[in-house]
Write a structure and sequence with these properties.
The protein is 56% helix and 3% strand. It has 17 helices and three strands.
């Protein structure tokens, strides 16, 4: 099948699904759709746009909880003349969506890769209905995805893009957690630091109060859609006297023990961070998919333990899952489908049955229990599979030249060449961290790892 015939169904699906999402956004006020989600753009984002246009971040606005790079994203619609702020915002979001779809498709056509990732992104994003076009999470997710897709060619570019994304929302910095040890890690993090420092200094010179977001983030409580919120939701049914209030831009619980639940969530986040550090220190084996899998696992773990899990957070997870599925060596396929299921339930929660969640009805409690149960299961499964893949040392023969196979780390003492884990490079190479060039094709054995025997899908 030619390249054109392989991409035609994908392109057709993208056009149809995006047209449907735009139609839903244009009819945002229909009661059947559960309420208006676009007003955050034309009301809140536009308000911030006006403030930013005067050279300052909205320091005294309790809803401003984003790093300074978010200001650049919110100012971007002003660059498109002849359109309202909402129209320009949607055009930019749609362009970002199209660009990453093309990048996923291009990666999927490479040997050893799959179009399944592009298919997941195209098919699963519409599960959130028109919400992705009414939040700027698509833009930041696209940056994180492009950073990961660039890693195999240039760790420097990966690090720089990840830093730019982290200046928009902090979480994309986690995509660097799985970069192969050694030169690739040093290169990625060095360029992330350089790019981040340069852009931050530029924004700080152009706008006042660039760190204002830190003051607002510290005051956030337990959102009703978080894992802790689900516990308090169920406690309400058992007679707990707390209530739900609108605070810091979301519906949060207030009342006895809420602070305790918030502290437990923060403690779980600290535990998650420790587990990721332990995984990286003890990992012995890298494949080309390990950085992708680690990025998804890290973001999923931090999301599941967060005090806030807004519905647009599912865009992050769908994007990283799609990048994982571009590789045939990924360990995260079942995790990706759990994320898709959680995304579908999230849409039922918001906006369709959000009033039930706020009121802590049995329907609302059941929906949140299912959605967060899927996320928690996905997070645990993701980390377990990541740990096993990086700590399994399959007994397979070396390639005829004595070099390790592509995507396989040679145990210490097995070769006299300075190969790093998952990074076979020549002295002048800086851009192909997982490829080796044996003089003859590698042989397969019954005990080969899944990284070399994964069937085509």
């Amino acid at each position: 099948m030619t390249r054109r015939h392989r991409l035609l169904p994908l392109a057709s699906a993208w056009l149809v699904t995006r047209a449907l999402m735009l139609w839903l956004l244009a009819h945002d006020s229909l009661p059947l759709l559960g309420g208006r989600v676009a007003r955050e753009v034309w009301r809140l984002y536009h308000h911030w746009y006006v403030v930013l246009s005067h050279g300052a971040f909205p320091a005294h606005d309790r809803l401003w909880q984003y790093p300074p790079g978010a200001g650049a994203v919110l100012l971007a619609p002003g660059l498109l003349p002849g359109l309202t702020y909402l129209q320009a915002f949607v055009v930019i979001t749609l362009a970002a969506d199209a660009s990453v779809t093309a990048a996923l498709a291009r990666t999927g056509l490479r040997p050893g890769h799959s179009l399944l990732g592009a298919g997941l992104w195209v098919g699963a994003l519409p599960l959130l209905l028109r919400l992705p076009f009414a939040r700027y999470d698509v833009q930041v997710t696209v940056l994180a995805m492009l950073a990961l897709l660039a890693l195999s060619r240039s760790p420097r570019v990966c690090g720089a893009i990840a830093a730019l994304a982290a200046l928009v929302k902090v979480w994309p910095l986690l995509v660097l957690v799985g970069v192969a040890k050694g030169r690739a890690t040093r290169s990625a993090w060095t360029w992330a630091a350089i790019a981040g420092a340069v852009v931050f200094a530029s924004l700080a010179a152009l706008f006042h109060n660039p760190l204002a977001f830190l003051w607002q983030q510290g005051g956030r409580g337990v959102q009703i859609e978080s894992l802790g919120g689900t516990v308090l939701n169920l406690a309400t049914r058992a007679g707990w006297p707390g209530r739900v209030d609108y605070r810091y831009g979301s519906m949060e619980f207030t009342g006895p023990y809420v602070t305790t639940v918030a502290h437990i969530a923060l403690a779980l986040t600290a535990v998650v961070f420790g587990l990721l550090v332990l995984w990286r220190l003890r990992a012995r084996r890298w494949t080309e998919a390990t950085p992708l899998d680690a990025a998804l696992s890290a973001v999923l773990l931090f999301t599941a333990t967060s005090r806030v899990i807004s519905p647009q957070y599912m865009v992050w997870l769908l994007g990283l899952a799609a990048v994982c599925l571009t590789s045939r060596h990924t360990t995260q396929r079942p995790v990706a489908w759990l994320i898709v299921a959680a995304t579908a339930v999230s849409t039922v929660v918001f906006p369709l049955y959000y009033s039930d969640v706020v009121a802590s009805t049995w329907t609302g409690c059941a929906l949140m229990f299912v959605r967060n149960g899927l996320l928690a299961t996905a997070a645990v499964l993701s980390f377990v599979r990541l740990w096993r893949s990086a700590h399994t040392d399959p007994a397979e023969p070396s390639a005829p030249t004595g070099r390790p196979r592509a995507g396989h780390t040679e145990p210490a003492g097995r070769t006299d060449r300075p190969w790093r884990a998952g990074h076979a490079e020549s002295p002048s190479s800086d851009s192909a961290p997982w490829t080796s060039c044996p003089t003859s094709p590698p042989t397969r054995s019954p005990s080969s790892s899944s990284a070399t025997t994964t069937p085509r899908m």
